[in-house]
Amino acid sequence: MSERYVSLAEIRELLKEESEKDELLVSQKSALEHAQKVSYLSVEDTESLIAELSEMEKVNDRIAVKIADILPKYPSDVRAIFYKERVDLTPEDIRQILDAVAKYIN
């Protein structure tokens, strides 16, 4: 069994599919409601954004998924996502991340 990070868009779709087959548990219903409220991109767009972000040197898979879930609009948002990482982001790195996100939210 392998592990991978899952975006909110993918969680939303998985829970929707499951709700059509069966009754969801209370925690699953809550997770679905949350995902529907805060996930703005389709699964395909989210996967494309994650792939684009993952190509950047300072962005790992976990951070790419987090960026795709949060969709930062400002440099301070990007710095907050990287706060606990041991990565020195340059203004150019931040601009590249924001430019990638902007392609999907505009």
Descriptive notes:
The chain has 106 residues and is an all-alpha fold. The protein has 2 domains: 31 residues, no CATH class; 63 residues, DNA polymerase, domain 1 (Orthogonal Bundle), CATH 1.10.150.80. The chain is built from 6 helices and no strands. Helix 1 packs across helix 2, helix 3 crosses helix 4 and helix 3 runs antiparallel to helix 6. The protein is elongated and about 50 Å long. The mean pLDDT is 94.
Give the termini separation. 37 Å
Q: What is the class of the largest domain in the CATH system?
A: Mainly Alpha
If classified by CATH, what would the architecture of the largest domain be?
Orthogonal Bundle
Please tell me how large the radius of gyration is: 15 Å
Q: How many individual helices?
A: 6
CATH homology superfamily of the largest domain: HRDC domain
Q: What is the N-to-C succession of helices and strands?
A: HHHHHH
